[in-house]
């Protein structure tokens, strides 16, 4: 796993190198959100308020909220609505209630059309009010209210009459008078108990007198999540998943980037780093087929996490790096000899660097006694899946050229073993880095004639020399 810190520059590389893939995935996410909105059509919510007169405690209000959404109330509303295609259980999921300030319960109904949502909210509120009145024994009959007031008036008159009779009775002179006063007091007590029960019934009736404050207003917009929200959420989700996927892949990437790791995997020292003018197609895979064409179309066939560094400034500075590598290679060899330049198959940056390196080594055709001349190099591409290096013949050593961040330690170890099987000692490694395009040579600047054409490539599978 890579230990590189995820910074804004990393996100910038993802956007720059994978913008086509990110755009396609964002569109796919938007289409997925649209498909979700088709499967789950928009919903509309209407609300109605019910006023509860009297004094109510908080737990009593919560009880009324539970009653408003209970199956007893919702099933009655479903029967009134007359929708056999909607079950009572499904309808209960569309009804909600909430206690608000001021002894008000807000009942909300959700349906697939504004009209149905309005009817559902109104019907549930009506059934809730009626159900609460039936529980409390309340009645909306005005004659019943008038009869209750008349009864209360009769009780008051009777109590007054009892007082008069008790005063007129013989004040304790006879046994019959005492018994009469005792009976009158018992009657008074019974009337007081009856008045108390009547007052309690009146308070219960007041609580049962719930009022629907107004009809539910027809909703003008869909309840969240709307179709637009689902489309935006799908696009954003797919975009974020794509970015996170790139970051996770970069964290889990086991390809070697540093010179020390590359040298340890190949078992040879790194002779230097050379620059190759970076072009988008230089990193692209040469594979064919429909999947490769799709990857090329989406820009996924080029590594996004290979930074394009700034070059030395001109062509002469690049050639100096190649010549210095040739000098180090010459100094490591006891005598001038031929070497194979092994390039991993598919590493276009390394192939171009190897060709330029071979051309630079071949440009030294008249070695002096002090320099002994550069070794002759021949480039061969070797598959990293099944590496086979040509057997030792005129060449007596191998120089591995590769780009950083493209190969794992296991793949490079396989290349080193293939070189050993072919009888070639890995005398060194050269790392190729892509750099920005070099500036155009002025018209009056004569071209450098010291670099001939690139060396001829050999067979990737180790053909005849």
Automatic annotation (TrEMBL):
InterPro entries per the UniProt record, alphabetical: Bact_polysacc_biosynth/exp, LPS_length_determ_N
Family: Belongs to the CpsC/CapA family.
Subcellular localization(s) per the UniProt record: Cell membrane
Transmembrane segment boundaries: 21-40, 230-249
Alphabetic keyword roster: Cell membrane, Membrane, Transmembrane, Transmembrane helix
Lineage, highest ranks first: Bacteria, Bacillati, Actinomycetota, Actinomycetes, Kitasatosporales
Membrane topology per record: Multi-pass membrane protein
Protein name: Wzz/FepE/Etk N-terminal domain-containing protein
Coiled coil spans: none
Main localization of the protein described in the UniProt heading: membrane
Region described as Disordered: 436-465
Organism: Streptomyces olivaceiscleroticus
Chain ranges of the Polysaccharide chain length determinant N-terminal domain: 4-74
